């Protein structure tokens, strides 16, 4: 039925492709927003490769940088899943370069969803909108009430973009009456569906290629992309508006992730460095680089995330990080990305 159609924005993205498959398995028809026909073909190849019905997918061209196309994209969609967002591997000097497009794009999508009388929208945010810029001596877990402190100099362009975009999403929802929830995952690992790498996959690929001789001793809460996709679809059935923070219980550091990869893929053991970057050197670099400033905030500590809402309301049982890392490594090899 037309009202069982779901719009997935940025449908060719790493998370989005998994979301598309999860929606199809749940019985929904999918409309994906893309920036061109080549991206639509990418998604269709993935759908066919896993044996799902590509005939239940359609596409609409729309871009976060323009209001054009979003009314057509959201028309006759029961739900909207807004996964599209800029996530550069190298942080730009001008934070406004990605903050503006993330904020404006979110507004375009949600206002169009409200005009189309969508029942609910799910916005893909991040733990980057939750736990940066807070005191280092904090011991209690970060939860859905916490928001990244935008006044802090340690907040990267990416974290700022996710925070500003999410805060604006809640403002638009209140103004329009659109029901929304957000999904706030940690570092997203797990299997690639094709050779297009998201930023998190690029980090692991760089480690597997041996391009990082020294690794910063930082621990980032992480989650498998399959759990992220399940969370998006299951959140559609939760009537209340919530922020769902997603992270597996264990939080290995980047050197520990490298060790997992070296043990799982012994033929690459000689390439994979597990040497730690001296923390003093990282902190010195943080004075010059916004990206290093974000990493420096996490040196020597692992932030704890309260995932009770996701476990209790979405019935998520998180895939272990070790399994997610190995699955990502296997898919990088399978798709000849390393």
UniProtKB/TrEMBL annotation:
Source species, domain of life: Bacteria
Annotated ranges, domain NAD-dependent epimerase/dehydratase: 6-241
Gene3D superfamilies to which the protein is assigned, alphabetical: NAD(P)-binding Rossmann-like Domain
GO molecular function, one term: oxidoreductase activity, acting on the CH-OH group of donors, NAD or NADP as acceptor
PANTHER family membership: NAD DEPENDENT EPIMERASE/DEHYDRATASE, STEROL-4-ALPHA-CARBOXYLATE 3-DEHYDROGENASE, DECARBOXYLATING
Family that this chain belongs to: Belongs to the NAD(P)-dependent epimerase/dehydratase family. Dihydroflavonol-4-reductase subfamily.
Name this polypeptide is given: NAD-dependent epimerase/dehydratase family protein
């Amino acid at each position: 039925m037309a009202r069982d159609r779901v719009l997935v924005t940025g449908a060719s993205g790493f998370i989005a492709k998994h979301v598309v498959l999860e929606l199809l398995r749940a019985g929904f028809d999918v409309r994906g927003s893309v920036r061109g026909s080549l991206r639509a073909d990418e998604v269709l190849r993935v759908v066919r490769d896993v044996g799902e019905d590509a005939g239940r997918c359609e596409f609409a061209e729309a871009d976060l940088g323009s209001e054009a196309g979003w009314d057509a994209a959201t028309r006759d969609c029961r739900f909207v899943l807004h996964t599209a967002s800029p996530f550069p591997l190298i942080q730009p000097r001008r934070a406004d370069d990605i903050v503006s497009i993330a904020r404006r794009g979110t507004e375009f999508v949600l206002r169009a969803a409200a005009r189309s009388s969508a029942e609910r929208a799910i916005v893909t945010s991040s733990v980057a909108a939750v736990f940066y810029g807070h005191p280092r001596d904090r011991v209690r877990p970060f939860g859905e009430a916490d928001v990244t402190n935008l006044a802090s100099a340690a907040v990267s362009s990416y974290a700022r973009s996710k925070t500003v975009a999410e805060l604006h999403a809640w403002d638009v929802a209140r103004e329009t009456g659109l029901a929304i929830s957000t999904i706030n995952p940690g570092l997203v690992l797990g299997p690639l569906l094709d050779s297009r790498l998201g930023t998190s996959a690029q980090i692991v690929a760089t480690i597997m290629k041996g391009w990082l001789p020294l690794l910063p001793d930082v621990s980032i809460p992480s989650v498998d992309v399959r759990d992220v996709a399940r969370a998006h679809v299951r959140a559609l059935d939760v009537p209340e508006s919530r922020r769902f923070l997603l992270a597996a219980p264990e939080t290995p550091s980047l050197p520990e992730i490298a060790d997992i990869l070296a043990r799982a893929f012994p033929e690459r053991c000689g390439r994979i460095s597990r040497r730690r970057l001296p923390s003093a050197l990282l902190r010195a670099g943080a004075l010059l680089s916004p990206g290093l400033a974000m990493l420096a905030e996490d040196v020597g500590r692992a932030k704890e995330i309260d995932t009770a809402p996701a476990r209790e309301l979405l019935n998520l049982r998180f895939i272990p990080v070790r399994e997610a890392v190995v699955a990502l490594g296997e898919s990088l090899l399978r798709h000849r990305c390393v």
